[in-house]
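Per reviewer request, we include the raw input and output of the structure prediction for the construct analysed in the revised manuscript.
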Amino acid sequence: MASTAVDAAERTAGRGAAVVHSAAERVQAGRQAVIAASGQAVVLAKTGWTLIAHRKILAAGVGAGLSALGATSYLAGRRAGRRTHGPITRLTGGRI
């Protein structure tokens, strides 16, 4: 009877240790998730701050790009609207 009680106590202690070990693993996994999330938040904040700090340069670049796009589309439209001339007309500069 004493050995049965000892066996039961050992099983109970083993189960308790397994529960504690499982809980510790979950806590560790949660901690790592929080660390990873905070790292991503820091990267996002740095990127946002860099964009805010360089907003004038960014705006100038966007403006230059839009100007170039507008000029290119204007020139492409003018080229498409021109009439084609034959070889004699090109040679004489449009006089014939």
